[in-house]
Write a structure and sequence with these properties.
It is a single chain. By secondary structure, the chain is mainly beta. Helices cover 11% and strands 49% of the residues. A hairpin with a 4-residue loop joins strand 14 and strand 15. It is globular, with a radius of gyration of 29 Å. 44% of the residues are buried.
Length: 835
C-alpha cells in the first residue's frame, strides 16, 4: 500500500506540475541537493528540458555527417526525401514546373507546411520566392551540418505551430578547432547533371570559448528530359505554326491537327542551382555563470528552370467580310474547315511561341538568419538554468521569366497582322519584340523571434527528481509576393495572379515537466498556450510515458494535440491561376493541364490535430550492439487548411452532383473556364502506420560491421473523403504502403565500404487505376583515410540505372520525379583535408 500511495502522489504531483507554474515555486523549499546535478545535460529535439541521455517517449531519427558523406547527398532535401517516413510530393531539384527552385520536406506526406524546420533548435525563416509557407532547404548547405534529427511525432505543445507532422532539427558544426577543406562532386554516367561542392571550415578555441566559421560553394548542373531514352515525346496541342478552333493551316485550307508539339526536348529533369553560403557559430563564456551562443547563416541561391516556349492562347473576335475593327475575318476557308465561333462569337487561337524562345525561369534569393542568446545558471537549490535568445530571419527574392508573352498585345497584333500569324511562317522580330516581355516578380519573408526559458529540477521523488522547463516566446512573421504588373492585370498568357502582402504576430507560453513515477516509469507532460493576432488563441498538450520493462526493453507512448496557424500566403494570398494535371470527364479540354483559379481566405482558422505513437526500444543483452525500435503512429487533422481535390470535384460534377459543380464553378455541361479551387477549413487528414528500425554493430571476420534497416509501413492515408493509401498521382505524389532503406557497412582501420538500397513499394495511379510497379535502388560507396589529415570517398548511386516507373497521371516526363529517381546512375566522390 505504501508504494501504491507513493505512485499516486507522484502522479498527482506530475499533473499539478504540468498545468501550473506555481507548483515549482511552492515546491522549491522541498528540493534536495542531488549529487548527479553536476552530470552534463544535453538538449534533445522534442523537449526543452535538459537531459542526461537521448531517451525520450518520442521517436527520433538521427543522420550524422558521416552518413551524409557516405551516401553522397548534396542537398538537405535529398537527405530527407530518401527517408522512408517521407511521402507525398515535396518540391526539390527535380521539380521543373512551378517550384521557383525551392526544396522542401514532406514528413508523412502531410504537407511541407506541417513539418517544422529548426536550425540548432530555433526556427528557420520561411523562404523561397516570397510569402512562403515553408522553409527552403536550399538555404542550409550540407557542408555545415553536424547531424539532422527527425522527430516523427506531433510537437506543437513544445514548439508551437507547424509541428503537426513532426520536426526536422538541423544541428550545425560547432566547437571545431583547426582548418578543413572538403571537395565533393559527381555526375551521371551519361555525362550530365554535374555537381560540385567546395567548403572550408575554420575554428579556434580561446580560454573561454570557441569560434567556428565556414563557407560553401555548390553548383548543380541540369539534366534535360530529352536526354533520357525512357522519356516519351510530348504531344501538346499548342504547336509552333498555330491553330484556330483546333484546326491548323495547310496552304489555303484549315485541316485537323494531326501532330502535337514535343516539349520534352526543352524541359529539365534536374534543374540547375548555384549556392554561396557563409556560416558561423560562437560560444563565449561571460564570467562564471553566463555563456553567449550565436550562429549566423547567409545563403545566396541562383537557380533556373526551363520549359518549352510559352503555350499562348487568345480568344479572337470574329467579323464577317467587309466588317472593320478589332476582329478577324470569318472566311469561307474557315467555314469549310469546320471552324465554328463559340456562343460569344469568338475563336480560340493557340500557338507555341517558339519564335520567342524557351521559357527560362530564373531566381536570385538571399536568405539571412542570425541568432544570439545568453544562457546561465542560478545558484538556487540544485540550480536553475536560464536561456534568452533573439533570432532574426530575412529572405528576399527576385524571379524572372524570360520570353513571356503579353496576351493583350498578342491579340491586338493578330488583328493588325492577321496574315503573319495565320500563314504558318516564323514571326518577324518586330512582332516578337512587341508581344514578348521579361516577367519580373519580387518577394520576401521576415521573422523576428524573442524567447526565454528556465529549466531545472523542482523537487525529488523516491525515483528521482522532477525536471521542468517554463518558457515564453514572441514571434512576428511577415511576407509579400508582388507579381509582374502584366500578370496582375491578367494581360499575360500565363495565369493571372494577384499580389500577396501581410503579417501576423504570436505570443506563447509553455511548460514541460518530466516525472519519474518509479524507477521504471517516467511521465512527460507539456502544455502550451499561443495567442495569435489573426485568429485568436490555441492550447495544446502532450503526455508521454516511458516504461523500462527490463534492462533490454523500454516501452514508450505519446498522445498529443497540435495546431497549425494559417500562414501569410493562406491568409492574404491573392488569387492565382495554376495549370493542374487533370482528367476532363467531359472531354472538352485539349490538354491534361487545365487552368484552375486558386483562392485564399482571410477568415481561415487554425487547423487542429491529434497524434498518437506507441512503441518499444529493444536492445537484447545477449546480442551486443543490436537495437530494435518498433512504433505505431497515427495523426488526425481536423479543419485542415487545404485545397479540395479538383479531380474528385470534376468527377462528382460529371456524375450529377450539383454541389460539386457549384463549389468548383463548373457548369453541368463541363465548361471549365472558371474552374476554381478554394482554400478552406473543411478538410481533414487521417493517416497511420508503423515504423521499424534495426541497427546492429558487431565485429566479425576481422572487420567492423554496421547494419541498419529502416522501414515505414503505411496503414492509411485519407484526406477529404479520398483514400490515398497505396496510390500515386502528379498532384499529390506517392503514398506507397511500404518504403524501406537498408544498409550494410564493413571496414577495418582506415577503410570502409557500404552497400545500401532503397525500396518503394507498388502503387496504383489515383486517376486511371493503373498498377505502378515497385522499384529498388542500389547504391555502393567506399571511404579511405590516407592519414589523419586526408580522407576520400567514392560511390555510385542507382548502381543498376533503374528507370523511373511510368505514371499515366504523372506531372513530368510521364512520371512523378518527386517520388522516383529520374536522373539515373550517378558517380560521386570527395576529398577532405584537415590541417
Amino acid at each position: 500500500m505504501q508504494s501504491s500511495s507513493k505512485l499516486a502522489s507522484a502522479i498527482k504531483l506530475g499533473l499539478i506540475a504540468s498545468v501550473s507554474t506555481t507548483a515549482f515555486t511552492v515546491s522549491n523549499s522541498a528540493i534536495a541537493q542531488d549529487e548527479s546535478a553536476n552530470v552534463e545535460r544535453i538538449s534533445v529535439t522534442g523537449s526543452r528540458i535538459q537531459r542526461q541521455d537521448m531517451e525520450t517517449a518520442s521517436p527520433v531519427t538521427v543522420i550524422d555527417a558521416g552518413a551524409i558523406r557516405a551516401e553522397g547527398y548534396t542537398s538537405v532535401d535529398e537527405i530527407l526525401q530518401a527517408q522512408p517516413a517521407m511521402a507525398g510530393m515535396a518540391m526539390g531539384s527535380t521539380t521543373n514546373n512551378g517550384s521557383d527552385g525551392v526544396a522542401q520536406v514532406d514528413l508523412r506526406g502531410m504537407g511541407s507546411s506541417r513539418t517544422l524546420v529548426l536550425l540548432n533548435g530555433r526556427r528557420m525563416v520561411n523562404s523561397g520566392s516570397g510569402a512562403d509557407s515553408a522553409v527552403d532547404l536550399n538555404t542550409i548547405p550540407v557542408a555545415m551540418i553536424a547531424r539532422v534529427e527527425i522527430l516523427k511525432d506531433g510537437a506543437s505543445a513544445v514548439y508551437g505551430s507547424d509541428a503537426i507532422a513532426g520536426v526536422v532539427n538541423i544541428i550545425t558544426k560547432k566547437d571545431f578547432e583547426g582548418f578543413q577543406v572538403d571537395i565533393n562532386g559527381g555526375a551521371t554516367d551519361k555525362s550530365d547533371g554535374e555537381n560540385i561542392e567546395i567548403s572550408a571550415l575554420y575554428g579556434f578555441n580561446t580560454d573561454t570559448g570557441n569560434y567556428t566559421f565556414g563557407a560553401a560553394y555548390s553548383d548543380r548542373g541540369g539534366v534535360m528530359q530529352g536526354d533520357r531514352d525512357w522519356v516519351e515525346p510530348g504531344a501538346s496541342s499548342f504547336v509552333p505554326g498555330g491553330s484556330l478552333g483546333g484546326k491548323v493551316k495547310e496552304g489555303d485550307e484549315w485541316v485537323d491537327r494531326t501532330e502535337g508539339y514535343d516539349y520534352t526536348k526543352d524541359s529539365w529533369l534536374q534543374t540547375p542551382n548555384t549556392r554561396y553560403s557563409l556560416f558561423a557559430n560562437a560560444t563565449q563564456e561571460l564570467g562564471n555563470d553566463m555563456v553567449f551562443t550565436g550562429d549566423l547563416l547567409y545563403t545566396k541561391r541562383k537557380s533556373k528552370q526551363m520549359m518549352a516556349p510559352q503555350p499562348a492562347s487568345v480568344m479572337l473576335d470574329v467579323c464577317e467580310t467587309g466588317q472593320t475593327g478589332n476582329c478577324i475575318e470569318y472566311t469561307q476557308a474557315m467555314k469549310d474547315g469546320g471552324i465554328t465561333p463559340d456562343d460569344n462569337g469568338q475563336l480560340e487561337y493557340r500557338r507555341r511561341m517558339t519564335d520567342a524562345g524557351n521559357r527560362i525561369y530564373e531566381q536570385d534569393t538571399d536568405t539571412l538568419r542570425v541568432s544570439g542568446g545568453l544562457a546561465g545558471t542560478l545558484d538556487v537549490h540544485t540550480g536553475i538554468d536560464w536561456d534568452v535568445a533573439y533570432t532574426y530571419g530575412s529572405n528576399k527574392a527576385t524571379t524572372w521569366v524570360h520570353n513571356s508573352i503579353n496576351a493583350t498585345k498578342m491579340e491586338q497584333s493578330m488583328y493588325d497582322n492577321t496574315d503573319d500569324w495565320f500563314n504558318g511562317d516564323p514571326l518577324s522580330d518586330a512582332i516578337i519584340n512587341d508581344v514578348s516581355y521579361l516577367e519580373t516578380t519580387d518577394g520576401g519573408n521576415d521573422q523576428h523571434t524573442v524567447s526565454g526559458v528556465i529549466s531545472g529540477e523542482a523537487f525529488d521523488l523516491d525515483a528521482g527528481a522532477v525536471a521542468y522547463a517554463i518558457g515564453a516566446e514572441y514571434r512576428h512573421e511577415s511576407g509579400y509576393y508582388t507579381p509582374d504588373q502584366v500578370i496582375q492585370n491578367g494581360d499575360g498568357t500565363a495565369a493571372q495572379q494577384d499580389p500577396t502582402d501581410g503579417s501576423y504576430s504570436v505570443f506563447s507560453v509553455y511548460q514541460e515537466v518530466s516525472v519519474p513515477f518509479t524507477d521504471k516509469l517516467t511521465g512527460e507532460f507539456a502544455l502550451r498556450f499561443d495567442d495569435y493576432s489573426t485568429f485568436g488563441n490555441a492550447s495544446t498538450w502532450k503526455i508521454g510515458l516511458t516504461y523500462v520493462a527490463t534492462d533490454d526493453l523500454m516501452l514508450r507512448t505519446v498522445a498529443a494535440t497540435g495546431f497549425r496557424a494559417p500562414n501569410v500566403s493562406e491568409l492574404y494570398g491573392g488569387n492565382v491561376g495554376s495549370y493542374d494535371y487533370l482528367n476532363d470527364p467531359w472531354g472538352n479540354e485539349q490538354d491534361p493541364q487545365i487552368l484552375v483559379n486558386y483562392t485564399s481566405d482571410e477568415d481561415l482558422q487554425a487547423e487542429t490535430s491529434e497524434s498518437y505513437t506507441a512503441g518499444l526500444v529493444y536492445s537484447p543483452s545477449y546480442v551486443d550492439g543490436m537495437s530494435v525500435t518498433l512504433d505505431y503512429w497515427r495523426f488526425k487533422i481536423k479543419d485542415a487548411i487545404s485545397r479540395l481535390d479538383v479531380q474528385a470535384g470534376l468527377d462528382s460534377c460529371y456524375a450529377g452532383d450539383a454541389t460539386a459543380c457549384e463549389t468548383f464553378n463548373i457548369t453541368p455541361g463541363g465548361d471549365l473556364s472558371n474552374l476554381t479551387n478554394p482554400l478552406t477549413n473543411v478538410g481533414y487528414q487521417d493517416t497511420s502506420g508503423i515504423d521499424f528500425n534495426l541497427a546492429y554493430n558487431f565485429e566479425g571476420l576481422g572487420l567492423d560491421w554496421k547494419i541498419n534497416n529502416d522501414l515505414t509501413y503505411l496503414l492509411e492515408f485519407e484526406q477529404d473523403g479520398v483514400d490515398y493509401t497505396g496510390t500515386i498521382g502528379g498532384m499529390f505524389g506517392g503514398y506507397a504502403e511500404v518504403k524501406n532503406n537498408f544498409s550494410i557497412q564493413a571496414g577495418q582501420g582506415d577503410w570502409s565500404i557500404m552497400y545500401s538500397n532503397r525500396y518503394i513499394g507498388e502503387m496504383t495511379d489515383i486517376n486511371y487505376g493503373d498498377e505502378v510497379e515497385s522499384v529498388l535502388y542500389h547504391n555502393i560507396s567506399g571511404m579511405y583515410h590516407f592519414s589523419d589529415a586526408i580522407s576520400a570517398t567514392l560511390g555510385v548511386k542507382n548502381l543498376t540505372d533503374v528507370e523511373p516507373v511510368m505514371v499515366a497521371s504523372g506531372n513530368t516526363a510521364g512520371t512523378v520525379p518527386e517520388v522516383y529517381d529520374t536522373i539515373g546512375r550517378q558517380i560521386y566522390g570527395g576529398v577532405s583535408f584537415k590541417f
